[in-house]
Amino acid sequence: MLHIKCPHCGMRSQNEFSYGGDATVKRPELNKEISDQDWDNFVYYRKSLRGKHKELWQHISGCRQWIKVERDTATHEIFKTVKAHEDI
Amino acid sequence: MTQNYRLDKIGLINRDKKLSFKFNGKNYFGYEGDTLASALLANGVHLIGRSFKYHRPRGFFGAGVDEPYAIVQLYRNNETEPNVKTTEQELFEGLEATSVNCWPSVNFDIGAINNFLKVFLPAGFYYKTFMWPKSFWYKVYEPIIRKAAGLGVASTKHDKERYEHKYEYCDLLIAGSGPSGLASAYAAAKNGARVILAEDKPRFGGTLLTSEVNIGNQTGKEWAENIISELKEMPNVIVKNRSQVFGYYDHNMLVMSEKLSDHLPKTKKYNPKQRLWYIRAKEVLISSGSIERPLVFGNNDTPGVMLSSAAKEYLKVYGVLVGKKPLIFTNNDSGYETAIEFKKNGIEPVILDTRKEPNSEIIEEAKNLGIQIKFSYVVVAAKGYKKVNAAEIAKISDNKNDLGTLENITCDCICVSGFWTPTIHLASQSGNKTKFDKDIDAFVPGVSKQSETTLGAANGTFTLAETLKDSFNAGYELSKKITKNDNKISHPTVVEKNKTTHDKFWCVPLPKGKNYKRFLDFQNDVAVSDIEIALKEGYRSIEHVKRYTTLGMATDQGKTSNLNGLQLVSNIENKIVPEVGHTTFRPPYTPVTIGAIVGREVGKHSRPTRKSPMHSWHEKNNAVFVDAGVWLRPRYYKIGEETLFEGSKREAKNVRANVGVCDVTTLGKIDIKGPDAAELLNRVYTNAWLKLPVGKARYGVMLREDGIVMDDGTTTRISENHYHMTTTTAQAANVLSHLEYYLQLVWPELNVNVVSTTEQWAGAAIAGPKSRNLLQKLFPNIDASTEGLPFMGYIEADLFGVHARIFRISFSGELAYEVNVESDNGNFMWEKIMEVGQEFKIQPYGTEALSTLRIEMGHIAGSELDGRTIPYDNSLEGLVSKKKDFIGKRSLDREAFIADDRQKVVGVVPIDKKTSIPEGSHLVKDAMAPIPNPKLGYISASCWSVEYDNPFSLAILKDGKNMIGQKLFAMSPLKNKTIPVEIVSSHYVDPKGERVRS
Known about the structure:
The complex is a heterodimer.
Chain A: E1 3-6, E2 10-13, E3 18-22, H1 36-43, E4 52-58, E5 66-72, E6 78-83
Antiparallel strand pairs in A: 1-2, 3-4, 4-5, 5-6
Chain B: E1 14-23, E2 26-32, H1 36-42, E3 49-50, E4 57-58, E5 71-76, E6 79-85, E7 95-99, H2 113-116, H3 125-129, H4 136-148, E8 163-175, H5 179-190, E9 195-198, E10 214-215, E11 218-219, H6 220-233, E12 237-240, E13 243-249, E14 253-259, E15 274-286, E16 290-292, E17 305-307, H7 308-318, E18 326-330, H8 334-344, E19 350-353, H9 361-368, E20 372-375, E21 377-383, E22 390-395, E23 407-410, E24 413-417, E25 420-422, H10 425-429, E26 433-437, E27 442-447, E28 452-454, H11 464-483, E29 494-495, E30 519-521, E31 526-527, H12 528-536, H13 542-549, H14 562-573, H15 577-580, H16 594-598, H17 615-620, E32 623-628, E33 631-637, H18 644-657, E34 660-663, E35 668-673, H19 677-684, E36 697-703, E37 709-719, E38 722-727, H20 732-746, E39 753-756, E40 761-767, H21 771-778, E41 794-799, E42 802-807, E43 816-822, H22 826-837, E44 843-844, H23 847-857, E45 904-910, E46 922-924, E47 937-945, E48 950-957, E49 967-972, E50 977-984, H24 994-997
Parallel strand pairs in B: 1-7, 8-9, 8-15, 9-12, 15-28, 17-24, 18-19, 18-24, 19-20, 34-44
Antiparallel strand pairs in B: 1-2, 3-4, 5-6, 5-7, 10-11, 10-29, 13-14, 14-15, 16-25, 21-22, 22-23, 26-27, 30-31, 32-33, 34-40, 35-38, 35-39, 36-37, 37-38, 40-43, 41-42, 42-43, 45-48, 45-50, 46-47, 46-49, 47-48, 49-50
Helix pairs in contact in B: 5-6, 5-11, 7-8, 8-9, 12-14, 18-23
């Protein structure tokens, strides 16, 4: 079980969080024309990285804040965690 | 009965407490402090079971967790547990055990015929033989193989024992209480660190209990006892025996199973049987020791052949002789310690040492004691079937290839020592890159990945002086790092006998003309010849060899066999062991009871049960409950002997005819506040929200980005910047997370707060033609007319002194209202509704009637919003805004979603108007078409229409909009039913929706 530092609450066990996928995906702006390909890339296509991965987690059984985590997908090492609005 | 193999004056057992037990129906006695193994050995019992494949007789091989043979079916307090290691199971009064893997009895086992068929049962036998014909595998081969194989039998009864989970944090977790564990724990604890010291055995001390050493001016055993009693008194230390740290997971999370009651005849009241500890440690010290390696020779699986360290432990801890004419077969000095213990207790051992002229203090001592030692000698084969009665021995050439003349020597046990294998499982599980140590012919921990340090024998350090020095130091340094204290304990001086190097020889060659089975893996009957075959057949990777031959599998996971297997592979392949590599060590280190893993999360405890504030009223009024997500909801309120069908029909009819009341507290509720609340709703829902006036509710559907419907519900504008959202019971948590995601990450500029209020409000839906009259009577001060409170209207009012929210919304399709009050007033509200409703013939209705009402109205719910449907499929086109953008809108343009023959929700009526259609049935054009019959759609929900008094279902049907009037078949292979049906509109009752607006 991972040990994740919530930037709001401190070190907590993984079972307080839920995983939210790639943190680098940007939702296309509303009311903007977008090609099928770009939309598909946003909705479906994700890289399956080995190594450092920037990802979202929500501290669901804690402060309910979404946070950004940089984690190594192979070793589970966590390098950094930041608040939702901060860059990682 | 006397215990013929028990000594009088030696051992740590309590001779004042005699315990009776049964093995295979026969009565025996042992003492408190015995294991089942030591008690059986004290009684001279060596035949415990039969082996897995050849059903050869099995005895005892070890004295602890490494035991491959001696596993039994245990009976305790009317329960049974399979595959219990006799070497770990402590004796208790009334213990009963039976052999596993033999039929009809351990003495006469029919399966033993496999032993004579062994030439036909080589490695991979099952894979090769039972391949054809394919259909035979499930019906014929597998059932027979499963019956013949397998170890113990799991109980099919519900496990009544209690298992607990515990979470703990510490500075240092120390696994193993041998010399290194004790020393490091003591040094760290004295330096102020929070320490957990875990020992899997009942007694602390590890090898100090059996070795002849002095630490300071005490014996090793006294020193261990003193350290432990001091540690137990320290407030910063948790000391646990019978506790196995079995798994090392990410971020220094370790899991330990503590057996609190397995050694007792019965678990004490209020006590758990076992406790699973989840421990997050800043630093982990692995002091798990080492396991003696077997030497490999002919028939080395015969009962009576065992590890020399085990023989010593039986003697020194339990006062038990494993034999009275022992033969010690060793390639290192450890065998001498065992021989010396035998000699001191009046037994005459013979030592066969594979080495030519070794010299050390301990060998000198053995010589001085007059023990007979034969150097350059090996055991070629054990003799005897159910028990060793002799050994075939021979001199071996210096190059270890040639055997001299075979000689026979009488003996009743053969104690083997092939040197030591460090127990590196935990280190390896942590991600440590293990390395091969040529000096000890074994893997030891290398570079750590997590905060872990391995000490003592587990690290390949086999002298006590060095172990203590390292361990005191590690405990001090690591604790200093954490506590910043600097309180150093000086380590004591040690007196131990020096030892000399071991012999790398471990596998005795076969004499000419003999084909003795030489076993590597005792639990799975894997012999040297099996590995040879696997390699001949082209298996190279050690992982493949393991799976093909089953080497190192099953309950002991190859604790005694892995390394010899590796050595053999590397010998044959002409490689060195590190090139072959070892198989992956995975948790658990040793079998863990499933109950302990599950903990308290069984039955109703598997997740919290949520009850509405009206729950006790429902109970008192004969509600039959159903699980709805985590909630318990009334399914129907039973009158007399009513069935579910009869009761729900009565309730639904009463809603259509009079008025009913339904507990809707479970609906998800989200309070939304802020100046941008309307904008958020406008982006989240598919329809327009910017112009919803205060005091009005609106139905909305929200999508995922992929266009699939996520949830539906009504949201009401309570005031200018305040909305009340409802979600389905099941999706409540997901919807909240969904909103938070967009607010926190995607559109942080929106000034909105969302919070769950599901549990803050109790809700009652009152539905039916007389609901307005009832509402007016409940709230005399409001104008309940359609003008005063129109469809989708909202007002707040006073319910006999209690603040209430009234929503005119309907799920049943009838004129209906939902009344919400604060949860604490829920029961009051409910009782008032029932009381005032008497004159309107009110009846409560449950989820079954609720479903009936919504299905025949064609209102969609969870069974249609099943994560596969888009708004169009559910005839919700009218709710999809063309003008504005919203979550998931872009996906609705996808080709498949706008296809002409896109699926759509429809109504389904059986032609005979009698036969109910099972939910999940498939709709097909031709009932007789060959399988796979093309599926056009499926039944999502079924009910008995109370309006028309015939069955009615909803279905998701391909090209649904053009299928109305078509005749199809509903097929349910599960229920073995084929029902001719007609497709009708999904809005079966009141298609224009006049009632809700009346």
